[in-house]
Automatic annotation (TrEMBL):
Protein name as it appears in the record: Lon protease
Recorded superkingdom: Bacteria
Gene: lon
Quaternary context: Homohexamer. Organized in a ring with a central cavity.
Enzymatic reactions: Hydrolysis of proteins in presence of ATP
Residues the record lists as binding ATP: G364, P365, P366, G367, T368, G369, K370, T371
Keyword Transmembrane helix: no
Alphabetized UniProt keyword annotations: ATP-binding, Cytoplasm, Hydrolase, Nucleotide-binding, Protease, Serine protease, Stress response
Species assigned in the record: Jutongia huaianensis
Enzyme class: hydrolase
Subcellular location, record wording: Cytoplasm
Length: 780
């Protein structure tokens, strides 16, 4: 047992063969070092179990410590003393003694170290090495290999440590050197030096090194991942900065990123919190996705659409009824029902500003001004006008939009129209709503139900937007040539307003007040250069056109203006041309239609009926001939199923009427041939029933039918005359053909009461209830 001054270490373990630099401030520790310097410079160093405690006793000191030599003491200005120690041997602490000088003496016993077998170079070169020597060689190699990997991960500083260890061939020295340089807790270092057997110290060090290497590997992986991410971010930042520099060099101000633009637009957007949240999420996704990714373009298009939608932006309606009436009267002649309905809407809007949108369906032949009146309504209201043509639309996605899972997905036509209008309350015109087509890809008419229903379109769902949009503030106007092809549920959502064909007088005023002025401007002609007389204009209407609308009339007027423009351009701009009833043929050629298409005298088996078509009313001449035969009924003229059934009913009722006027076997020995001229034109409808009955009766009884009479009506098997539709168009056609008397079903009298006096002027109406009434008036 030997005695040495005690140096209690805090957070530090002194190791044999390793130089340690320690700063101390405690008086008893400084006294112990001074005492050592006066003797053999040797002290016993032991680490405290509890580094925070100031107690120095057997319970608070580790049993195993190191005998170290004090190489140097340097006093610092701040009362600290810097000490350089060089560890020499391991020793066990047995007891402690206090001294009068103020320091503590440690009674210690040196550890018995195993014999060092490596100092003899001959042993290393001996090929017959003992087993213990081989074991030591293996330990040294394994330690050096682990430490090499550890140093490789430490960079340049680790390389210096590796060089120091690699030169040593002493296992104990290698263990102490490695332990001293590991950044581990001092308790772990104490655990390495405590075992007396060198194999145990080796094992403890291996466990600690494997743990440290595992930590370093994880740190390396994390560092590599972070480094890669930082490099990617730096690369992206660098590239963006380059793009900005290029924009700047090109003189383009818009150098900010698209994501920044979207965020700036979002800050200004007026929308609900739900919409803003959705847009914010999409912007975050857009930032994370590379611009080379195909999904980037999809998200960009989606964001542009969402940010362009007028979620809360509305235009202010002009609810001045007098102003609206002035505009409608200036733009359109006639159409009193339509104008009245629009003015009613404005009056209600003035009283109830929060009212929902209105759905009006204008039904009438082509050229009657359905589309143009929608523009005038938008002008009168002060609303944005957008037109959606539904002709030939067969895919529901065209209205509802495509889901964004599809390539080339886009919003539906309705949302696009609202986006282009830039307000949520535009006037939307659904043109040709009767021309939509249903097939296997969907039923667009069913999609229109939600769009046009005021109770549903508050939350209209477009597949592309994935957000509901309020369409209830929009003003919808639909146009159609007829309601037959419109589905009943869809028709129920709309308020139908009929636009029948124009009378001759209405066409004259439209041509004079609107069409003539319009075509003069389009052809670059002034009113002084070209004039037309009222009589010439009426001649163009009667002799060169036959239609319900005025589209054909406008083409004729345009033809007059072009031919006049040719003359003016060739001769002199000061040339004045006057078109009259006498010279209109020079510009338009021979008249296309006769002024009076009625028959000149009563004839047997020829009766003039009245028909409704999508382009207005027409007179329909039906011819019947009775010939000897075998009792067949022959039908020609491309008749539809309804007209064929009407012909059979008419023949049956005529057989009932003439059973006392002809022989009993008359119909067995005679063939009845019914023909409707213009055989290439398809014809169908129930309103030819009375006409066929009268014609068959006339042919069978050989009684002539008056030439100045026309008729319309459906016939039952019992001879009753049923009401028909399109009476106004039919009466206009009769008037154009020069018919003086028209036989009309009694139940259609309510339609006559609503007609303008101009339509009925020059025509005498006779109401009929049975076929007998028809025959009484029609037969000569």
């Amino acid at each position: 047992m030997i005695k040495k001054p005690l140096m209690a270490l805090r957070d530090v373990v002194a190791l044999p063969g390793v130089t340690a630099y320690i700063e101390v401030a405690k008086a008893e520790t400084v006294s112990a070092m001074e005492a050592a310097m006066e003797n053999d410079q040797m002290v016993f160093t032991a680490a405290k179990r509890d580094a925070e405690s100031s107690d120095v006793n057997m319970d608070n000191l580790f049993e195993v410590g190191t005998i170290a030599k004090v190489k140097q003491i340097a006093r610092m200005p701040d009362k600290y003393v810097r000490v350089v120690l060089e560890g020499e041997k391991r020793a066990h602490l047995l007891s402690l003694e206090s001294t009068d000088e103020g320091y503590i003496l440690a009674n210690i016993q040196e550890s018995e170290e195993e014999e060092d077998v490596w100092n003899n170079a001959d042993i290393l070169s001996n090929h017959g090495e003992p087993t213990e020597q081989l074991k030591r060689v293996a330990m040294i190699r394994q330690l050096k290999q682990l430490f090499r990997e550890y140093c490789d991960r430490q960079g340049k500083m680790g390389q210096q440590l590796q060089d120091m260890v690699s030169e040593s061939i002493d296992l104990d020295r290698i263990i102490y050197m490695i332990t001293a340089n590991l950044p581990i807790h001092y308790h772990l270092k104490q655990g390495i030096i405590e075992p007396d057997r060198i194999e145990d110290r080796f094992t403890e060090l291996m466990i600690v090194m494997e743990r440290e290497l595992g930590i370093l590997r994880l740190q390396g992986d994390i560092s590599e991942m972070v480094k890669q991410q930082v490099e990617d971010n730096q690369k992206e930042y660098y590239l963006r900065e380059q793009i900005k520099a290029i924009h700047k060099e090109l003189g383009e101000d818009d150098a900010e990123s698209e994501a920044d633009k979207f965020e700036r637009k979002l800050a200004k957007l007026k929308a609900t919190d739900k919409v803003k949240k959705k847009i914010k999420e999409e912007i975050s996704r857009y930032k994370r996705i590379s611009s080379n990714n195909s999904e980037s373009a999809v998200i960009r298009g989606y964001l542009e659409t969402l940010l362009a939608m007028p979620w809360k932006k509305m235009s202010r309606d002009n609810t001045d009824v007098a102003h609206a009436k002035e505009i409608l009267d200036a733009d359109h002649y006639g159409l009193e029902k339509v104008k009245e309905r629009i003015l009613e809407y404005l009056a209600v809007k003035k009283l109830n500003k929060n009212g929902t949108g209105t759905i009006i369906c204008l039904v009438g032949p082509p050229g009657t001004g359905k589309t143009s009146i929608a523009k005038s309504v938008a002008k009168a209201l002060g609303r944005k006008y957008v037109r959606i043509c539904l002709g030939g639309v067969r895919d529901e996605a065209e209205l509802r939009g495509h889901r964004r899972t599809y390539v080339g997905a886009m919003p539906g036509r309705v949302i696009n129209a609202v986006k282009n209008a830039k307000v949520k309350n535009p006037l939307i015109l659904f043109d040709e709503i009767d021309k939509m087509v249903s097939d296997g890809r969907g039923d667009p008419a069913a999609a229109m139900l939600e769009i046009l229903d005021p109770e549903q379109n508050k939350h209209f769902s477009d597949h592309y937007l994935e957000l509901s949009f309020d369409l209830s503030k929009a003003f919808f106007i639909c146009t159609a040539n007829g309601t037959d092809t419109i589905s009943r549920p869809l028709l129920d959502r709309m308020e139908v307003i009929e636009l029948p064909g124009y009378t001759e007088n209405e066409k004259f005023h439209i041509a004079k007040e609107h069409l003539w002025t319009k075509q003069l401007a389009q052809n670059g002609i002034t009113k002084q250069q070209l004039t037309i007389t009222d009589k010439a204009l009426r001649t163009v209407i009667l002799r060169y056109t036959r239609e319900a609308g005025v589209r054909g009339l406008e083409r004729r007027i345009a033809s007059l203006c072009r031919k006049a423009a040719k003359v003016i351009a060739q001769e002199d701009t000061k040339t004045k041309i006057r078109i009259s009833d006498r010279n209109v043929k020079e510009y338009l050629g021979k008249p296309v239609y006769k002024p009076n298409a009625a028959n000149e005298k009563p004839e047997i088996g020829i009766v003039r009926g009245l028909a409704w078509t999508s382009v207005g009313g027409e007179t329909l001449e039906i011819e019947v001939m009775s010939l000897k035969g075998s009792g067949k009924l022959e039908l020609t003229g491309k008749l539809g199923d309804v007209m064929q059934e009407s012909a059979k009913i008419a023949l049956t009722y005529v057989r009932y009427l003439v059973q006392d006027q002809v022989s009993e076997d008359y119909f067995e020995k005679h063939d009845i041939h019914i023909h409707v001229p213009e055989g290439a034109t398809p014809k169908d409808g129930p309103s030819a029933g009375v006409t066929m009955t009268t014609a068959i009766y006339s042919a069978v009884t050989e009684k002539a039918v008056r030439a100045d009479v026309a008729m319309t009506g459906e016939v039952t098997l019992r001879g009753r005359v049923l009401p028909i539709g399109g009476l106004k168009e039919k009466l206009l056609a009769a008037k154009e053909a020069g018919i003086q008397e028209v036989l009309v079903p009694k139940e259609n009298s309510r339609d006559v009461d609503e007609m303008e006096a101009e339509i009925l002027d020059g025509i005498e109406l006779k109401y009929v209830q049975k076929v007998e009434d028809v025959l009484k008036e029609a037969l000569a």
